[in-house]
Amino acid sequence: MAKKGNAGSAKAASVHAVEERAAKVADALDLELVEVVLQKESRGKCLCIYVDKEGGLSLDDCERYHKQLQPLLEDVDYDFLEVSSPGLDRPIKTLRDFEKNRDALVEVKLFAPQQGSKLHQGLLRMMDDDTVTIEVAGGESLTFGRKTVAIIKPVIILEDEDFSEDAALDDSTFTDVEFE
Questions:
Q1: pLDDT by 10-residue block (mean), the chain, 180 residues
Q2: b/e for 88-107, b at 16 or more Cβ within 10 A?
Q3: In the chain, is it the N or the C terminus that has fewer CB atoms within a 10 Å radius of its CB?
Q4: Among candidates 124, 144, 121, 149, which has minimal Cα distance to 134?
């Protein structure tokens, strides 16, 4: 959904101001504001807003959020407003993200090697403002300073049943789609 922002006063509105407005709309719709990103793309400036909801986000949730937020962004310089879920593999950045992913299998990428590697995998056991602790194979705990961590991401494991014949798409899935 494209929207041309008001270019004149656009730079006056910071990402922080957008976050405040986006958070109010998210709260009103019982959604969680995850992140606001303003980035330049080949098609123009994209204001990307990631929201989530307990139990999962639907397309209707995104559309409702978009319609309520867009009028509040008239002073923001952007070409496209995108609202979406952050995805299953979204990075774990905040303490709230940690709470959702406590005891989950994660991959921790570091800026510099520690314990002989820049990449470590284990169960996310603890995270605070300063440190991250994972439990690796054998029950050993590794603790890293948050400033040494480049990214923490959940490890997505797909089971065989995710690819079973019952889960496969058939032609009836596309009966309402017309191709030209």
A1: 46 74 97 92 94 92 98 92 91 90 96 96 96 95 97 89 60 49
A2: eebbbeeeebbeebeeeebb
A3: C
A4: 124
Question: What's the CATH number where 129 sits?
Answer: 2.30.30.100
Q: Are 89 and 109 in contact (CB under 8 A)?
A: no
Q: Are residues 118 and 55 in the same domain?
A: no
Distance from the Cα of residue 32 to its chain's centroid:
11
